Amino acid sequence: MKNTILSKAALPVACLTACLIAGTTLAQSDNPALSGLEIRAADGPAVLSSTWLDARAGDFGPQGLGVDPAVVPDSRHAETAPVKFAWALEGVTADNAGQTIARVESRQYWVDATGADLSSGVSLPLTSRGAVIRVSPLEAGGDIGIDPASVQLSVDGKRFDSTRSMMQVTDGASLQRLGMSVPAQTIAFKLDKAIPPGKLDLAVARLPADQKLVVHVFEPDSDWVAELDLPRDTFVAGETLEFGFGLGNDRGKVRVDSVQAVLADPYADRTWALEIDKADGTLTRTAPADRFVSGQDGLFEAYVYLETVQDGLTVRRDLKLPVSIVPPLAKFSGQTVATLDDGLTLEVGVETAVPGRFQLNGQVFGTAADGSLKPLAMAQSAAVIEGRAGSIQLQVDADMLKASGLRAPFEVRNLELLDQGRMFVLQRQQRALLLAD
User: Fold this and answer.
1) Confidence check: pLDDT of 27 > 80
2) For 223-326, which CATH class?
C-alpha cells in the first residue's frame, strides 16, 4: 500500500526532499512547517514487478526493424478505436507444451499430363492396393467429359477390365458437394483390391491432345509415408528456413534417391530453390527479404517431391507445407508496466517501423492457494500505433480475477504481437513474462 500526502498549504520542495532523503515520513518530521498536513492511505493500484523470461525453441521475433517502408504492403485496417477482450482460459494447463512444429505427411503425388499423354498412357507407381485416382483439367472450364468407359488400366503390362476395376466412380460436381475444390469435369475412382502394387499404366481415350490435365494418386492403405516439417509456422525475413524431410514405413526411414524442392511465393509466380542435404534430410535457404505479401493474400509454400525404389517398387510422394514469412515491422520494446487493482492490467511497449493497427494476444496464468500455476484468462487487445513507438494493454477484469481465486505471481504465456491490417504474426514468446508482488 502506498501513502499519499495531501497538503493544506504550500510545502517547500527543499523540505519535502530533505524528509525523503532522511527516510522519514512527513508525519514523523518535527518541522513546524509540516503541521496541519493530512496523511491518508492511497487507493491506487499496486505495481507488480515484470520480468521477461528467457526465449526458448519455437519463439521468434525480429532482432531489429531494418525494413524499407516502401516495400511493406499497405495496412488494410478499418477499425481505429482500441479494443480489449478477455475470457476464461480453458483446455490448457501450466504443463502444456507451447507451440508445436509445423508438419505434414503424405501418401500421395501428382502428375501433370496432356490429353496426348493420357491417350498413350501415363505411368503411375503404386505401393499398395486400393489407390484412389483423380483426373482433372488443370484449369476449370475445360469441356473434356471423361467417360469411365474410355479409361484403360494395366499393371506391369497386365491389362485389367476397367469396368470391374474402377470402384466408386464419381465426378467433379459430386466432389464439389462434398466440399472439395475441383473442376466439375473431374473424374475420380478407387482401384479394386484386385489391382496389385507395381507400375500402373493409365490411359484415357478421346481427350483433346493439347488439354492440360493433372492426375492425383492417393494411397490411403500404403505403409510408405513421407513427412515434411519446420520448427515453427512463421519466420522473419532473413532468418534461415530449415525443413526436415523423410520417407519411411513402420520399419523406419529410408534413403531417398531423388529430391526436388522449391519455395514459392503466395502468387506462385516466383520460386526459390531449397538447398538439399539428403544425408541429413534437410532443406534450407534464407527466408526471402525482397518479396513481402500481405498475409491476407496467402502464404509462402514449400513444394517437395520425393522418389525412391524399395523392394522393387517405386515410391513417389509429394508434399506441400505453408509457411508465413513476415517483414520485421514491429517488436516488443522490452518495456512493461503491470498493475493489480481489482483487476490485472499489463501494458506492453511496442516499437514499430511503420504505422498500423497492432494486436496483442496473451494467455494469463495465476497462482492458486496451493502454490500451483493455473490458467486464468485469454486476453486480446488491439490499438493503432502511428509513430515509431507505443504500447498495448492486456486486461483481466475484476470479476474474472475474483472468480478465479488466483493471485500473484502471474505468468503470461504465448504472448503474440500481430499486425492486424497486414495479417502478420510478428513476434511470439511461449513463456513471456513473470508478474510478481
Assistant:
1) no
2) mainly beta
